[in-house]
């Protein structure tokens, strides 16, 4: 009698819970949204074009949503990568100069502020 072994992943954070048809909740939601958008678009396109064109149009409309459902890299879904891309290209400034805060300069600013406070205290005490 041969022993049967089941491979157990070492990192359990990568294990996703499957709900129906071996799909995650995220994938089911994306596929549902794709169906809600794709099927009516098929019938709308079929009214003005042939069935082949309607099927191709439906596929073009649904494929990005399928890609959102299935694509994952380093444990992050596509919208996270798109958010980082949009932030890097459009939100943040193009040139980000490296600025340091010199410790000696910070101490000098602190000393100057303390001298200013001491001067204000002395002048208010004289009056």
Please provide a written account of the structure:
With 127 residues, this protein is mainly alpha-helical. Strand 1 and strand 2 form a beta hairpin. It has a domain at 18-93. 65% of the residues lie in helices and 3% in strands. It starts with 24 loop residues before the first helix and ends with a helix. It is elongated and about 95 Å long.
Write the layout of secondary structure elements.
Elements: H1 25-48, H2 51-70, E1 72-73, E2 76-77, H3 78-91, H4 103-126
Antiparallel strand pairs: 1-2
User: Ranges with pLDDT <50 over ≥5 residues?
Assistant: none
Q: How would you spell out the order of helices and strands?
A: HHEEHH
Biggest sheet layout: 2 strands, antiparallel
Question: What's the average pLDDT?
Answer: 86
Structural category: mainly alpha
Beta-strand content? under 5%
Q: Output the number of helix runs.
A: 4
This entry's quaternary arrangement is single chain
Q: In which range does the helix fraction lie?
A: 55-70%
Number of strands: 2
- What is the CA–CA distance across the termini? 101 Å
If strands are numbered along the chain, what order do they take across the biggest sheet? 1-2
Radius of gyration: 31 Å
Assign an overall shape: elongated
Name its key features.
127 residues; two-stranded antiparallel ribbon; 4 helices
Summarize the structure.
With 127 residues, the chain is mainly alpha-helical. It contains 4 helices and 2 strands, in the order H-H-E-E-H-H. Helix 1 packs antiparallel against helix 2.
